[in-house]
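Q: Could you write out the predicted structure for this multi-component system? I'm mainly interested in how the pieces pack against one another.
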Amino acid sequence: MKKELPEHFKAYKHVWVMVELERGHVHPVSWELMGEARKLADKLGVDVGAVVIGAPDAGAREAAAESFAYGADVVYLVENPILAEYRNESYTRTLTELVNTYKPEILLLGATNLGRDLAGSVATTLLTGLTADCTELAVDADKSLAATRPTFGGSLLCTIYTLNFRPQMATVRPRVMRMPERHEGRIGRVVEHAVALEEESIVTKVLKFLPDRSSQTSNLAYADVVVAGGLGLQNGENLQLVRALANVLGGEWGCSRPCVQKGWAPAERQIGQTGKTIRPKLYIAAGISGAIQHRVGVEGADLIVAINTDRNAPILDIAHFAVATDAIRFLPALTEAFRARISPHANDRLAG
Amino acid sequence: MHFVVCIKQVPDSAQIRVHPVTNTIMRQGVPTIINPYDLFSLETALRLRDEMGGEVTVLTMGPPSAEDALRKALTYGADRAVLLTDRFFAGSDTLATSYALAQAIRKIGDAWGAPDIVFAGKQTIDGDTAQVGPGIARRLELNQLTYISRVTKVDAEARTVELERRAEGGTQVLSSSLPCLVTMLEGSAEIRRGSMAGALRAARAEITTWSAADAGITDLLKCGLRGSPTVVKRVFAPAPRAEKAKQIEVKAKSRETADDLIEALFEAKPAMQADLEQLAAGL
Ligand SMILES: Cc1cc2nc3c(=O)[nH]c(=O)nc-3n(C[C@H](O)[C@H](O)[C@H](O)COP(=O)(O)OP(=O)(O)OC[C@H]3O[C@@H](n4cnc5c(N)ncnc54)[C@H](O)[C@@H]3O)c2cc1C
Ligand SMILES: Cc1cc2nc3c(=O)[nH]c(=O)nc-3n(C[C@H](O)[C@H](O)[C@H](O)COP(=O)(O)OP(=O)(O)OC[C@H]3O[C@@H](n4cnc5c(N)ncnc54)[C@H](O)[C@@H]3O)c2cc1C
């Protein structure tokens, strides 16, 4: 298909990021996207706009200030008590109105529950294209957004364009993009926009919010060290060895998908295409073959160690170091060795 | 009550190939299944029907062979199956897919009563966009309720629903009204096994097959490639990494091997030791 952008879309300019503000907390994926938006905007010679939607409170103001610190030039701020909790209807109406009023050429959202819920309905309302779960965003010679995403389980990549509609929309999963540097004190322009919303016209009500018990939610996606186990550990009890090592390293533990399917671990611990994407400084994979669906979730790690009896396992294609030994025997030894090297106690000894 | 469940037939593995020239999927020879996420929605719909009475209609858009997925849904206990199939739908992105499905759901409503709840899966395992559910909701102006872990109450009289939705850091307990579109989370219900009687019934059941025209879809510019704002320009293989992993020699004592590994790590990334010490100290 050729690019023949209709005249009325030519006024669409600037790169926007939807800042996910939920219950006073901004999802870090928003800042990861801001870093990407900055790069795209600099290439296009346009501004980065941050959309901050929420209740009129400190949280929204803080999110606006943080948007500047992470690279936004303009913040589109919509404050309304009705927007205190995320609801599809009120947020879709708000974001659609902002787009129609200020006309961005690119609109990026996190591929979180909120982002996917909102992106799907906004793109349909605007009748524009939406590319899901991108791993690379670029602008090509004719200034179109080239959105690249893995397909068929990551065995292939495809580049998708929204040539003749605006905005060009894309979602990106948390941790896929690097967190940009934060510039304290950086400021910009705030555009306050009022949206006419009445509570009576919003059908869906939030009756209650039940926060997760902290033990339930893992910080897997954002951990600096992750130790994970796979089927090579033979049984669910042996995942304890993975947990013990993660514990000594002050990191999080995870697993491959079959471990979840066998009931060895809860779904939130799964790493990979249909689980979490991680980006730790150190990733240790024990008894994991490194199937492509697993691999796409861990490739962003700085250093990867594979403990695998098979010297030809695919995980070795992405690992930096490998130990060809029985993980069940090796993990306790590694845990002890790390404990000796890095525990605060060992540190005291060195200092003393 | 009338529940419509959208199901997609997907390849039973990610090992499908893409034609290098045409960038289209080569599905030949790959076994197909109902998209696993759709089963949780189907199960939820079947349970609601069993409790409250009514009917479950399953709908799929796909090639004629997608009939297999519908028959499978019938063995689970769905009452009726509709296959939307037409070459005009080829190459649909999510916007075009949701248009076609929404039109078919309207037609289903005309034929057998307007649906009270339309179900879709959270996402598929092939396209994996999670965009079709919201797309259908918008086009039919249904209340959009995604990532639902539990439908706690459906009141047919008052036309209200209560549900639990997975949100960042917790669960939203929501009330909304019928008609709505719901996507269920995986693990939200235990999937029943199809019965022998169900299988026999399914084998004999008539599947309603509609072309675009049958479903009342007249605006073909909104269908297939022409109705898709996204354009797949390039499909390519990721570049392999140049060097393979460095093997740490395995010594007789595991502890020695472990020490060697740690040494190699700290050598490769000098900052790592300090990082790990901080982490271990809980800083
Ligand atoms: C649509 C789709 C989505 C998927 N999504 C994901 C996903 O998100 N995440 C994911 O992980 N998978 C996913 N998978 C599954 C994936 O294809 C693989 O099947 C899976 O990752 C394999 O898990 P594994 O490495 O633990 O097991 P296996 O492939 O069985 O590998 C076990 C490994 O352990 C080694 N081993 C055996 N014994 C020992 C021992 N004693 N010590 C050390 N090593 C040993 C073996 O050499 C082998 O390499 C998905 C698949 C599909 C089709
Ligand atoms: C390589 C590749 C990449 C693609 N990337 C994109 C992209 O980024 N953006 C885009 O708009 N399109 C994309 N598409 C097109 C997209 O895969 C198709 O539009 C597909 O028909 C629906 O999308 P999905 O599989 O992602 O469904 P999802 O949105 O993940 O499906 C959610 C639910 O909708 C229902 N559903 C979906 N399809 C059907 C159906 N045919 N019949 C009945 N119910 C259904 C099911 O209940 C399903 O669980 C891509 C296609 C390919 C080949």
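A: Regarding packing and overall arrangement: The domain at 220-340 of chain A is CATH 3.40.50.1220 (Rossmann fold).
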